Amino acid sequence: MSSYDPHRVRADVPLLRRVIDGHPITYLDSASSSLTPRPVIEAMSRYYELRHANVHRGVYTTAEEATAAYEGARVAVGEFIHAAHPSEEIVFTKNTTEGFNLLVKSWGRANLRSDSVVVLTEMEHHANLVPWFQLREEVGFEIRYIPVGDDFRLDLSNLDALLDGASIVSFSAMSNVLGTKNPVERIAAAGHAAGALVAVDAAQSVAHSVTDVQSSDVDFMSFGAHKMMGPTGIGAFYAKRALLADMPPFLGGGGMIADVRLDGYTPAKGVERFEAGTPMIAEAVGMHAAVRYIENLGLAAIAEHERALTADALGRLRERFAGRVRVIGPSDVHDRGGVLSLDVDGIHPHDVAQVLDQHGVCVRPGHHCAKPLMRRFSLPATARASFGAYSLREDTDVLLDGLDHVIELFG
Amino acid sequence: MSNLEDLYREIILDHYRSPRNRGELECPPAHRIEGFNPLCGDEITVYVAADGATLSDIKISGHGCSISQSSASLMSAAVKGKPIADVRATIDTFKRLMTVHESNLDDEQEPEPVDLRALGELAALQGVVKFPVRIKCATLAWNTLAQGLDELSN
Q: Which residues on neighbouring strands pair with residue A332, listed in sequence order?
């Protein structure tokens, strides 16, 4: 672990050389989108310069190469999350949200009825709420929520009763607002014991700790590449092979068919059934490069680095601001990631973020697409700082100086 | 740092710290309109009362950032007791102030310049246009009031 050097990562990330209003950029918004290292950018450029062709169609050399690159990315992403059958259990999507739409509108529509029960949590991103609401309008099933306690963690004391009769439990591995890491294995085991399937939103966790869908026994998972140092425009949806085999198509069109006649169509088998139209080939190449990049850094080393940064920041926020800056999330680093949602002396997060911008500090103000969770804690919004593999203690120095300025101006 | 001072003028901070016309009006006879900024979660409720063709009273409640709150406060001070036709004209002028940098950049016709003197204290908000993301904060109360005037006249 001691060999982990964030400065080496920084040297790979061109955007970290930006200067904003005379200040070097202090990027603390990796929970929103992580910065892209040169190997990812170069892999995508090389693809466009040397190998670009449509996939699954041509028989000429570059078309074969593009298909091999695209399918190779699928295998790499599947292996990254320890899928049992990497080439058959990963569907490429546009982003995490599309993965949940696929789950709800394919599996959900085929399996849920008016007397079904879906279990979610109070800390979900809108991606894992709104698609369920949309299908509920059609089908009329019941949605139950695992509550969030005042310690900013899921209250699992009533879990078995909540899961009673449930068809599926769908929850985030890590909250994008609180930083709380949820006990995936425990909830998955309880879900399966109750006869429910288990879906996990891994958007926030996948680049910050090891993901193993087999050991944690997860049935479905969704995550996006751009929060794991990869490009925007691509994500991955994982489903166990046997479950995927029974799921109806999601989007229709070219590429997802076995046969089309004037009187109808027969969908393709396997992952192709869910990938209508020309896919994001260059982005898949970029996602593959991001997986390799993260694997080379080592997920355990990244997790340890971010844990140290988070512990340091939590301690210094407490000491320096003595209650004027409240962290909306667990106060220790046990089962917690590097996401710090701040309530700065009641000052509106837009104003906090605007002043921080003048210091070159990038944080995200807002409700973070988790409005039910914000209501749970009676907050309209927070200013969220979050760490990545390239973050430094010095980033926290600049953040804290900026917060002094915020309080001086508005306090 | 000059940019930040353009945005957070002293008048704006004053209206943020001591908002004018804060509160509620009994409905009816007053009219109540809610406005939301779904991107940032800001919520505002505007209460307007009309006496014939005059906007006789206005109160504002809700929460939001310094720009949305001070803009609402400045607006309430500017329109209270004014003829509704003048209020509509002020809304139009203010919204033009908030879009002036985006409109007609290469049209032959010059956009009609906004008369800052006619806006009085409201002109303090002109710095907001340099921060495009914040324009929605500044216009939230105004769009809500405009909706209320439309509903009043129906």
A: none
